[in-house]
Amino acid sequence: MPPREHRASAWRRRYSDRERLQDRPERSADQRAQGHVLLDTSRAFLAWGRHDRALYVLRAAGDIAPEEITGCPAALRLVRDILATAPISVRREAREYAEALGVST
């Protein structure tokens, strides 16, 4: 095992690298990939009939990678599908989210 000082300086280097990456305004590839995974998960929930969870996961994807939602026609189609098939209990929230994204029904 390396000496304690060496481990501490290595941790500081990793931490400063992570901090520098977080200061970048553009999204990382990991965040874009995570956005895609959440979009697929939202599609699965919609197919399963869980509209509330589909909308929740879709909003999470928008928080992590907003460009993946607003710039992807498939994601906007998913918003329309959720809005079109959602039960009344979810429809109002889905409509508000669709309006915020500029999606017309």
Major beta sheet summary = none
| Beta-strand residue fraction | under 5%
Low-pLDDT parts are none
Order of helices and strands: HHHHHH
Average predicted local confidence, pLDDT: 81
| Global shape | globular
Q: Termini, distance in Å?
A: 61 Å
What structural class do helix, strand and pairing data support? mainly alpha
Count of runs of 4 or more consecutive helical residues? 6
Radius of gyration: 19 Å
The helix content is over 70%
Number of strands: 0
Q: Could you describe the 3D structure shown?
A:
Helix 2 packs antiparallel against helix 3. The mean pLDDT is about 80. The protein is about 80% helix and about 0% strand. The relative contact order is 0.11. The longest helix has 20 residues, at about 30-50. It has about 100 residues and is an all-alpha fold. The protein has helices at about 5-20, 30-50, 50-65, 65-70, 75-85, 90-100. The chain is built from 6 helices and no strands.
Produce a short descriptive summary:
By secondary structure, the protein is mainly alpha-helical. 81% of the residues lie in helices and 0% in strands. It is built from 6 helices and no strands.
